[in-house]
Amino acid sequence: MNPANYLYLSALLFTIGAAGVLIRRNAIVVFMCVELMLNACNLAFVTFSRLHGNLDGQVIAFFTMVVAAAEVVVGLAIIVSIFRSRHSASVDDANLMKL
Amino acid sequence: MSASSVHSLWTTAAPVADKFPTPHIEYAQLSPVLIVFAAAALGVLVEAFLPRRSRYTAQVGVAAVGLAAAFAAIVALADKGYGTTKAHIAAMGAVAVDGPALFLQGTILLVGFVAIFTFAERRLDQRAHGNRVDSFAAQGSAVPGSDQEKAAVRAGFTSTEVFPLLMFAVGGMLVFPAANDLLTLFVALEVFSLPLYILCALARRNRLMSQEAAVKYFLLGAFSSAFLLFGIALLYGYAGTVSYSGISAVIDGTAPMNPALASTTGNDALLLIGLAMVTMGLLFKVGAVPFHMWTPDVYQGAPTPVTGFMASATKVAAFGALLRLLYVVLPGMRWDWRPVMWGVAIITMLAGAVIAVTQTDVKRLLAYSSIAHAGFILAGVIATTPDGISSVLFYLAAYSFVTLGAFAVVTLVRDAGGEATHLSRWAGLGRRSPLVAAVFAVFLLAFAGIPLTSGFAGKFAVFKAAAGGGAMPLVIVGVISSAIAAFFYIRVIVLMFFSEPKADGPTVAVPSVMTSTAIAVGVAVTLVLGLAPQYFLDLADKAGVFVR
């Protein structure tokens, strides 16, 4: 199979993720869309790694996973804390500082 | 790519590496970063094992000693010539040890050191149940206004975790401008961003606003770093490597060709989109328009000491990384990225200055002013001359101390609800406490770029470099937006000195020696860099060569 197809899939996943971040209102869902974007990046890395015949891309994919995990820890902590104080995780409700 | 070439790659790619070679790490040259991370890890252990009452002293001590030791290591490295003649690439190509890296790392360490003083300040807020408290929440996890929070305040809890978090952020920022491959760039970005997200959420007063700032910063930051990462993936796809020198060699066409590379380098879309996305990620951290939306909200909501640290140190680190990316990786793409950066710089300068005029909150005002300053610095970046590098280095050093000092002053003006940040509350401050108002006026004049302050020396250097690099229109826009910006800085000064103080106006808290030191350092650097900039301009000039 042509590896370019994997790249198209990765671009598609990235776009779905980016669109989700912009459209969805629940902070948790927004955050999951960001994770989808990171996974799309991983797919691109692994595909390019195969294309170029070196292992850099696969190693980077591991780094991305670790970073994504760390981001989950911090992100969920922040989102849960704001949910507990407002009883809502909607990003539209977070408007104390709107001009 | 043709089907047959793909097929052969598909089956013969990735030769089996029978063993990994041991990496060669130059520990001495990486010592500043290692010291800071060691101090951060030590801070985590302190948090885990020391009794609560002795944590504060221990944490402040560990952080201050760590930063001071790291700065000493930077000075030692620069003294040995790593900034100039012995500049080279360490850690298997991952980290550059050269002039700009050492200069910016030194600046970040000094900023971090001064920021510790503002973090550790415990005399501004009124005592809570007899305990002196700082600007940070008693217990970050407790719901604002809940019984749990009240119990935490009564028990005298404080978030001493902020010091290790600050240290981790500083560590990431040290690596960021020195990163010499895209993977290190990404990891360093996350290492300094994640602690900042948490720090934003930890304000003692206005906790809802603080949490909101953290959510906004986190979601937008994660979004932008995903863009950065996809850009890295595309550049890796284009060049088959993530090392800066490797990518630049592929762009210049000097890299040895192989079939896979021949098929991807023919595809300019990979390069251009990758370049655009990586730059986007960095411009977000810099706070340039149109990626600036987070700046005012986060600056306003975050605890003010954190805002001061974030506004100055993040900018230094991010501009360092942007400079290295544009000057080391993409000089061959100059004709593609310069027009775009022109546009970004112009709109950043104008939008920052114009929107700032309408602001009514001191912290938001300073946020928009920081956006305008990002535009001025971008003008120096665009110069693509050696002068461009050194002027940006100088501007960053000058700007970061002014910002740190200005936000430290903001922490002093308080009323019953905490800091009084609404501009109308600042009316007549000059009559009430002339010294604080005068100090703030010095910082505002430096922001405005009035002669005899560091702001003027920095702006002059940057605009001169931009003009020398053939960006005269940028300089004209820069001067116009400086004039607009000067209007609202002066307006605040007039408000402080020439209007009647209100009867129920805010009080100016008498700070301990900590915040006084931070503000004094800010004033001193502002005046020294303004009155006698030559030594530091020479230093920036000497440091202004990237190793490739």
UniProtKB/TrEMBL annotation, chain A:
Quaternary state and interactors: NDH-1 is composed of 14 different subunits. Subunits NuoA, H, J, K, L, M, N constitute the membrane sector of the complex.
Organism: Actinacidiphila cocklensis
Gene name for this UniProt entry: nuoK
EC number, as in UniProt: 7.1.1.-
Gene3D superfamilies found in the cross-reference section: 1.10.287.3510
Family: Belongs to the complex I subunit 4L family.
GO biological process, one term: ATP synthesis coupled electron transport
One MF annotation (Gene Ontology) recorded for this entry: quinone binding
Protein name per UniProt: NADH-quinone oxidoreductase subunit K
NCBIfam families the UniProt entry points to: PRK05715.1-2, PRK05715.1-3, PRK05715.1-5
Coiled-coil annotated spans: none
Enzyme class of the recorded protein, top EC level: translocase
Role summary: NDH-1 shuttles electrons from NADH, via FMN and iron-sulfur (Fe-S) centers, to quinones in the respiratory chain. The immediate electron acceptor for the enzyme in this species is believed to be a menaquinone. Couples the redox reaction to proton translocation (for every two electrons transferred, four hydrogen ions are translocated across the cytoplasmic membrane), and thus conserves the redox energy in a proton gradient.
Automatic annotation (TrEMBL), chain B:
Primary location class: membrane
Compartments reported by the entry: Cell membrane; Endomembrane system; Membrane
Membrane-crossing residue ranges in chain numbering: 30-50, 57-78, 102-120, 162-179, 185-203, 215-239, 269-294, 306-327, 339-358, 365-386, 392-413, 434-454, 474-498, 510-532
InterPro entries reported in the protein's UniProt record: NADH-Q_OxRdtase_suN/2, ND/Mrp_TM
Superkingdom field: Bacteria
Keyword terms, alphabetized: Cell membrane, Membrane, NAD, Quinone, Translocase, Transmembrane, Transmembrane helix, Transport
EC number in record: 7.1.1.-
Calcium listed as a keyword: no
Keyword Transmembrane helix: yes
Gene Ontology terms: biological process: ATP synthesis coupled electron transport
Pfam families: Proton_antipo_M
GO MF annotation: an example: NADH dehydrogenase (quinone) (non-electrogenic) activity
Catalytic function, reaction form: a quinone + NADH + 5 H(+)(in) = a quinol + NAD(+) + 4 H(+)(out)
NADH:quinone oxidoreductase/Mrp antiporter transmembrane domain span: 179-484
Protein topology in the membrane: Multi-pass membrane protein
GO cellular-component term (any): endomembrane system
Family affiliation: Belongs to the complex I subunit 2 family.
Subunit structure: NDH-1 is composed of 14 different subunits. Subunits NuoA, H, J, K, L, M, N constitute the membrane sector of the complex.
Primary role: NDH-1 shuttles electrons from NADH, via FMN and iron-sulfur (Fe-S) centers, to quinones in the respiratory chain. The immediate electron acceptor for the enzyme in this species is believed to be a menaquinone. Couples the redox reaction to proton translocation (for every two electrons transferred, four hydrogen ions are translocated across the cytoplasmic membrane), and thus conserves the redox energy in a proton gradient.
Name under which the protein is recorded: NADH-quinone oxidoreductase subunit N
Organism from which the protein derives: Actinacidiphila paucisporea
Originating gene: nuoN
